[in-house]
Amino acid sequence: MERLMTSVPAARTRRRASSMVVKTAAANRCRRWGLLIAGRRLAQGPGGDKRNDRCEAPRAGSAHTRACAGVGPQRGLCRGRRSGTRRAMSIPVPPVPSFPPAALTLTSVPGLRAAGVRAGIKASGNPDVGLLVADEAVPAAGLFTQNHFAAAPVLLSREHLAKSGGRVRAVVVNSGNANACTGEDGARDAREMCTRVAGALGCPVEQVLVCSTGVIGVKLPMDRVRAGIDAALAQLAGDVEAGRRFLHAIMTTDAYPKEACARLGRGVVAGICKGAGMIEPNMATMLGFLSTDLQLSPAELQAALPRLAAGSFNAVHVDTHTSTNDTLLLLATGRTPRAAGWEEAAAQVAHRLAWLIARDGEGATKVTTIEVTGAESDAAAREIAKLVAASALVRTALYGNDPNWGRFTSQVGNARAVRNARALTCVLQGIEVFRGGEPTAFDRAAASRAMAQEDVRLELRLADGPGRAVVLTSDLGYRYVQVNAEYTT
Question: 58 and 114: one domain?
Fold first, then answer.
């Protein structure tokens, strides 16, 4: 197997054996957070002289150069030596962000109870079965994955919502196993989960929805699922902590729980979600639950939900994978008279949850809001924004705090919806970096410092068309590779 280093004379190799790092491609996979970069010689000029005393920088402005210069998240990581070798670099884990809990959660909505328990589905032993129950069947609406391999729980929940006329009594969730691509066994298991809950609550089975998230293609351990459902039924409660136990039970690779809330007069809108990877702007690998105590009909909820998703969950990009299990549900218990502006309040909650998903993008250090204006239509603006958000080069530049306008503008130029690329103006964190087909005379160091924030804004202004779109994306760093190389999905 090829070694990941250049050859050196044998005698020199023996003298430097203690400092050389020799790794095979197979052995170079991370088993802990510490990405090992194999050592290699410095480039040599005429006569074999070294070109510099520290390391060979691949190109000006590269991540390696910034590491040497102490700029960006890689600062201080270069281990180049005068001897002509680089030692292994151990790249630290980005700190897990910490967000204060929302003042309210799902169970802050009158008429809802919840539970979350450990059933042993996850090898980690973390909570993995959750139950959300309304005191009576309540109006509800749902949006589901557009993946053609939609999981059994998605197909069944879609069917149940239609048969019940948009009325739901309970939602049962398991994490650690997606129950996707599991054939007839998977469909039978999803039905059994609903039937078990319906029997305990004394309601029609069509009023119970089911969600699963986790590893694809593995059969559910139904003995554990049954025990988990029974335990959750026994622990149902309406306090805030019960709602948070439900939230923890739906998480998989999430680094932190995601919840948001808003008050609207006497009314409440609350929401939780899970999602960190396999995210693409079609509501991907996400389970989301929104609830309110306002008096709303199933038809009103179903009409509003696509609008809520369009500006939030469907505007998130972490990678280009749409999951098999995406589900977004909205329930209204009807305990409080309907208030004007409820949809705006719900949109705020949904946008906050979407931001938290993007921020959690498996190793992400920031969320970038990409706003496209001046396109021929909203659809054209959305196409352009999605194309930029999907670019690995754009997202690695964001991770490295690199104001690389060339990556942004070249992706805009790739969009079929662009009619006059020369009209493009690119504004990064309030700094104009590109206009009229060429870069502006901006301060790169100042722009890089401005990018070293948790919230970054990239504005792409085209001509004077009416089209506008906003997409949220995360940066792309080492942690994303490590998580997805070591976690089976």
Answer: no
Round to whole Å and give the CA distance between 351 and 311: 7
> What total number of domains does the chain contain?
3
Do residues 139 and 223 both lie within one domain? yes
Claim to verify: residue 129 and residue 42 sit in the same structural domain: no
Cα–Cα distance, 57 to 486 (Å, whole number) = 30
- Choosing from 92, 124, 157, the residue where a domain stops is 92
Q: Which two tokens stand for residue 434?
A: 């590109």
Query: Identity (one letter) of the amino acid at 263?
Result: R
**Catalytic residue annotation:** 285
Does 88 map to a domain? yes
Measured CA to CA in angstroms, residue 299 lies from 65, 161, 166, 196, 306 at distances of 57, 12, 8, 28, 12
Do both 66 and 120 map to the same domain? Answer: no
Domain, as residue range, for 277: 106-357
Question: What CA–CA distance (Å, rounded) separates 108 from 263?
Answer: 11
pTM for the full predicted model: 0.73
Can you tell me the distance from the alpha carbon of 115 to that of 127, in angstroms, rounded to the nearest whole number?
10
123 and 240 together in one domain: yes
* Residues in CB range of 369: below 8 A, 6 or more apart: 455, 456, 457, 458, 470, 471, 472
**Which strands make up the sheet holding 438-439, listed edge to edge?**
316-317, 467-474, 367-375, 455-461, 425-428, 431-435, 438-439
The closest of 429, 433, 417 to 457, measured between CA atoms, is 429
Give me the half-sphere count of Cα atoms (radius 13 Å) on the Cβ side of residue 343.
13
Instruction: Output the domain CATH number for residue 439.
Output: 3.10.20.340
Residue 316 pLDDT class (50, 70, 90 cuts):
confident
Chain segment 77-126, per-residue pLDDT in tens: 343 333 333 334 344 555 555 566 777 899 999 999 999 999 999 999 99
Q: What angle do CA 157, 160, 163 make, to 5 degrees?
A: 155
Together in a domain, 78 and 225: no
According to the model, what pLDDT value does residue 362 have?
A: 67
Last residue of one domain, picked from the residues 357, 385, 407: 357
Q: Note whether 363 and 253 are within 8 A (CB).
A: no
Q: What is the mean pLDDT of the chain?
A: 80
Tens of pLDDT, residues 414-427: 998 888 888 999 99
Same domain, 352 and 372: no
